Amino acid sequence: KLGITFRALRYKLKKLGID
């Protein structure tokens, strides 16, 4: 579960352009 949440956060950051 935490992995999915973490992945979602990483994806959101990437969408914003923050690698």
Question: What's the tally of helices?
Answer: 1
Helix content range = over 70%
Instruction: Tell me the total number of β-strands.
Output: 0
Assign the structural class, choosing from mainly alpha, mainly beta, alpha/beta, alpha+beta, or little secondary structure: mainly alpha
* Shape category: rod-shaped
**On the 0-100 scale, what is the average pLDDT?**
83
Low-confidence stretches: none
- What portion of residues belong to β-strands? under 5%
The topology string of helices and strands comes to: H
Radius of gyration: 8 Å
Textual characterization of the structure:
- The protein has 19 residues and is an all-alpha fold.
- Helix content is 79%, strand content 0%.
- The chain has one helix at residues 2-16.
- The longest helix is centred in the middle third of the chain and has 15 residues, at 2-16.
- The radius of gyration is 8 Å and the shape is rod-shaped.
Concise account of the structure shown:
The chain is mainly alpha-helical and 19 residues long. It has one helix at 2-16.
Secondary structure topology:
Elements: H1 2-16
List keywords for this structure.
mainly alpha; 19 residues
